[in-house]
Specification:
Elements lengths: L27 H5 L3 H15 L3 H16 L7 H5 L1
Helix pairs in contact: 2-3
């Protein structure tokens, strides 16, 4: 019997309109055990080097830093269901 698909949405405050400051400062960067300045300097460097949009640069940097640190880029199941 096929599983029933449940509609869902993922909301992320990419431009800082829903929460004060950058959402990465609350959980993501501390999980990397990096100083915030290190992360944002890397983002700035990536954006300049590749003439990229800063938002896309920090999304890329998030994936790269998480991969390097061995951190999954997803919410743990226990936090979703409980």
């Amino acid at each position: 019997m096929p599983k029933k698909l449940i509609p869902m949405a993922i909301a992320y405050d990419f431009d800082g309109t829903l929460a004060p400051g950058n959402m990465q400062e609350y959980d993501f960067i501390p999980a990397l055990k990096l100083p915030s300045k290190h992360f944002w300097d890397k983002v700035t460097g990536l954006a300049k080097k590749h003439e990229a949009d800063p938002i896309l640069a920090y999304m890329y940097a998030m994936l790269e830093e998480a991969r390097t640190a061995g951190l999954p880029v997803r919410k743990p199941i226990s936090r979703i269901t409980g």
